[in-house]
């Protein structure tokens, strides 16, 4: 081997080693960035304005992600932010796992677990023993979240006065105000009915 070949091999080894080191450095930086992002979003804030159908689909996506999940035998319903799980699963661990997965979703206010095992009665059936029955009246409904709005003095002056509630009108013993019949056009004449 001549000196030119030795020099080329030496530079080739150095280039490969520096390329591998650069890839390893980029990998370490990206993994670190991912860990920081994951730690910041452990429990994300609930998304505002999510309706019940969207929340039900989100819950289904989360709990039925695995291939062996009981998609065909579990129903998911949402009422006022409370998720109702109904159906039959094969093992008791699945009941606990599904309930914990649903409870970990930030938009969920509560979980009503009505899942049962095969050859056991459903918790809402009339032939279920009385201590095991669960009805809607026996569940605790969550209190709705209230947004704390900051009132601005200027905006309260510009806002129109709200119509009194039917309860207030009934207390006063007067009827409700009539709705306006029509809008006036630019010339001051009412629109034809």
Your description of this structure?
- A three-stranded mixed β-sheet has the order 1-2-3.
- The protein has five helices and three strands, in the order ααββαβαα.
- With 193 residues, it is of the alpha+beta class.
- The mean pLDDT is 79.
- Among the domains are: 7-42; 52-138, Histidine-containing Protein, Chain: A (2-Layer Sandwich).
- It has helices spanning 3-40, 52-63, 92-103, 153-158, 166-172, and strands at residues 74-79, 82-88, 110-116.
CATH architecture of the domain at 52-138: 2-Layer Sandwich
What's the CATH class of the domain at 52-138, please? Alpha Beta
Average pLDDT metric? 79
Number of helices: 5
Give, in spatial order, the strands making up the sheet with the most strands: 1-2-3
Task: Give the N-terminus to C-terminus distance in angstroms.
Answer: 104 Å
Q: Helix/strand/pairing class, anyone?
A: alpha+beta
Helix % is: 25-40%
**Got a strand count?**
3
> What is the CA-atom radius of gyration, in angstroms?
32 Å
Oligomeric composition of the shown chains: single chain
- Sequence of secondary-structure elements: HHEEHEHH
Question: Beta fraction of the residues?
Answer: 5-15%
**CATH-defined topology of the domain at 52-138:** Histidine-containing Protein, Chain: A
Residue stretches low in confidence (pLDDT < 50, at least 5 long) are none
């Amino acid at each position: 081997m001549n000196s030119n070949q030795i020099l080329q091999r030496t530079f080739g080894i150095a280039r490969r080693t520096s390329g591998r080191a650069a890839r390893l450095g980029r990998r370490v930086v990206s993994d670190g960035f991912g860990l920081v992002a994951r730690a910041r979003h452990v429990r994300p804030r609930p998304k505002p304005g999510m309706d019940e159908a969207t929340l039900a689909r989100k819950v289904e996506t989360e709990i039925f992600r695995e291939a062996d999940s009981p998609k065909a035998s579990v129903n998911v319903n949402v009422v006022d932010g409370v998720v109702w799980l109904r159906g039959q699963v094969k093992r008791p661990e699945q009941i606990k796992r599904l309930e914990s997965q649903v409870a970990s979703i930030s938009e969920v206010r509560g979980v009503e677990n009505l899942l049962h095992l095969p050859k056991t009665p459903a918790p809402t059936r009339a032939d279920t023993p009385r201590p095991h029955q669960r009805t809607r009246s026996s569940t605790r409904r969550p209190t709705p979240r209230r947004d704390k709005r900051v009132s601005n003095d200027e905006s309260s002056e510009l806002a129109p006065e709200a119509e009194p509630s039917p309860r207030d009108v009934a207390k006063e013993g007067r009827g409700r105000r009539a709705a306006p019949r029509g809008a006036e056009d630019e010339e001051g004449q009412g629109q034809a009915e």
